[in-house]
Amino acid sequence: MKKKFLSLVLALMMLLSLVACGGNNNTDTPANTDTPTNTDTPANTDTPSDADEPADAGYTGPDWEAIDAMDYDDQSDALYDWNLGEFADAYAAAKSELDDMDKRSALMAIAEAKLLESGVFLPVRSNGGSFAMNRVVPRSVTTTDWGLDEYKWYTVLVANELLKSEDRDAITAIWSEAADAETYFTNVRQFLADNGYTLQDTYNFLQSYDLETWDMMATSYTSDSYFVAPTYSGLLEYDVKNIQQPALAESYEVSPDGTVYTFHIRDGVYWVDQQGRQLEQVTANDWVTGMMHVADNNDALGYLMSSDGGVGIKNYDAFINGEVTFDQVGVKAIDELTLEYTLEQKFPAFTTALGYACFAPLNYSFYKSQGGTFSAEGDEYTAGNYGTSPSTIAYCGPYLVTNFTPQNITAYAANPSYWNADAVNTHTVNIYYYDGTDAMRPYNEAKAGTIAGAGFNASSLVVAKEESPEGETASYFDLYHYNSATDSTCFCGWMNLNRQAFANFNDATQGISPKADDLDAQARTRAAMNNQHFRLALAYAFDRGSFNAQRSGEDLKYTALANSYVPGTFYQLLADTTVDINGTATTFPAGTYYGAIRQAQLEADGSTIKAWDPTADGGAGSSGGFDGWYNASAAKAELELAIAELAEVGVEISAENPIAIDTFYQLGYDVGTNEKNTFKQSIEGVLEGNVVVNLVAYPDSQTMQYAYYRNSTGAEANFDFSDGSGWGPDYGDPQTYLDTIQAYGYMCKNIGLY
């Protein structure tokens, strides 16, 4: 989620139904989709990564006898140091830079280069990048990639008619030219009226998320927060021009040293229950209450409050460790309408984190009425009934939940007590569950107007190019198609370094590995997965373009490809900045993108990874839209090094004795099945049978999630390779990505650690 921990299967299903989150409403055309880069055997294939010691220097590998004698966390520490020590050192240097954001970001780019070179994961794709048709007006929801504001929906405009392709382009131009959000809405409404469109008051769409809790502070999953975000308002919120505006805080000040933020809460805003009945006024104490509840659910959202991975609320870590009482934590209600946050040290991106649920208010009285308690008050913590249903939460946001029927419908109606009720453009929202098994459902329902729009999958794209609306000679595709923009989410291929589970942790009858009873095969795979050259062989052998084509078609197979964890355009230098690249002081001029600095380090290290293309996006540069990893020659060279090194520790790799890699797929979901078969063919073909891929079947997406998404520790991860989950930013600093891969970072569970 944002703790943007995302499930790829769910996200792809969601994109096929084209809900209006992230970049799906953005009609800007992704660049350079016609000429992918490095799709087969690019230049510079003769120099595989050499970060490991060469075989003739004597390869030892991890000390497995010692590691097996350790407890699990100590094993994780040892394997993290072995595989990610160089990244950890570079990243520590980057995080220590707090005064110069340019230098900080440049150092983080260098650290990410080391992370990519480790091969513990490879980027696969972002959201978006598919053909679609829609009634949702482009840019009528914020496209800011951090926080949950994109899921609040109240600003969305939905036409009764499908928007024509040329009109979408014109609307995007109106957005670009508008000075502010108000001007955009005025001008776009006029454009719609002038061109024969009418607006409806209901937004219907398909979506494939399952929800486990309505308690937004007790979850780290987008699949939960997605539903809850419209029920509350934050201190500040991003508008459709992606400018942060006052919301429940009318204004704020920052202390001269950058560590104290004082917010002035809007007067006269009230909490209501699910029926819209008024409860109590929203006050500064609601954020103090929220922080107490976050602390009691520290495993879910506490990382964002921590100094080690988040914004660094003063004494938050000390409270979690039992060293101080809660009254010493850096959140205070100075008076009824004045809220103060104090940080351990300056964190320039602090306000960009406020859109996330851990900075949401929580009404004390309502929470207590549901049986909730707080450890901060000396009680044994329980949430009681709070968050178990839409009736057990209090609301201060744009919508109230009117119907929640799991795997069927979630319905919302506008909250009449919402502080910004006049800004609500759409007063009813209906989310219909979609399990992905009927590939034509999104297209058919979008045609009929039952839902606002749909992305075209391989099946519906063929029909859309042949079928015409009544009275038209042009096809649905020709009239209405656009290319949905990509966003800053990165779904990855994860390598399990210390696999412990060979069946699902919650149900041992599901996801049983073919290696479940073969200890020798398990040990051989673990040894191989802890060899950098072996991991890079897998990464370079993975034809991600062909993989992605199973969902988006050949025409767009490169559009959504991601080549880095942090998007290359995530940060741009404000001033000339000098950093060390392999012992050479290197100055990058103002305007240089983060991605260009990262690529400079990759090239200095002799890596074949291309994670930045300065010619993409019309010359602006991009880290996506081309394949900078797939490289058959480099894959074979890396495998040769891995075979030689692993032979020194008694692990044979050959076509007669291959390494077996388990991954998963969902029965009945044709797109996912085709993707995994493409992965298998790619790996086994390029690596010439020295690696075999076992496809482990699951009956449905919910069961499969417990293999890779709903696990809380690396020990519960039931795979060798997973492409199933990803991350998007929580705030506007590259740290929001890279922290997840530091020791004990949240995404480390996907590499089998912590």
Question: Layout of SSEs?
Answer:
Layout (H helix, E strand, L loop, with lengths): L5 E2 H10 L46 H5 L3 H24 L5 H18 L2 E5 L5 E4 L23 E2 L5 H13 L3 H14 L4 E2 L1 E6 L14 H7 L7 E3 L5 E3 L2 E6 L5 E6 L4 E3 L5 E4 L3 H12 L1 H8 L10 H5 L10 E5 L2 E5 L21 H6 L29 E7 L3 E6 L13 E6 L7 H8 L4 E3 L2 H9 L9 H5 L1 E2 L6 E6 L23 H11 L2 H10 L2 H9 L24 E5 L2 E5 L5 H11 L27 H17 L10 E8 L3 H17 L4 E8 L2 H8 L12 E2 L2 E3 L7 H4 L16
Parallel strand pairs: 6-17, 23-24
Antiparallel strand pairs: 1-26, 2-20, 3-18, 3-19, 4-5, 7-8, 9-10, 10-14, 11-12, 13-14, 15-16, 16-17, 20-25, 20-26, 21-22
Helix pairs in contact: 3-4, 4-18, 5-6, 16-19, 17-20
Helix count equals: 22
Strand residues, percent: 15-25%
State the separation between the terminal residues, measured CA to CA.
19 Å
Q: Give Rg in angstroms.
A: 25 Å
Shape: globular
Please state the average pLDDT score.
92
Number of strands: 26
* Poorly predicted sequence stretches spanning 5 or more consecutive residues: 7-55
Sketch the major β-sheet. 5 strands, antiparallel
Q: Give the proportion of residues in helices.
A: 25-40%
Structural class: alpha+beta
Keywords:
754 residues, alpha+beta, 22 helices
Describe the structure.
This protein is α+β, with helices and mostly antiparallel strands and 754 residues long. Helix content is 31%, strand content 16%. α5 runs antiparallel to α6 (181-194) and α16 runs antiparallel to α19.
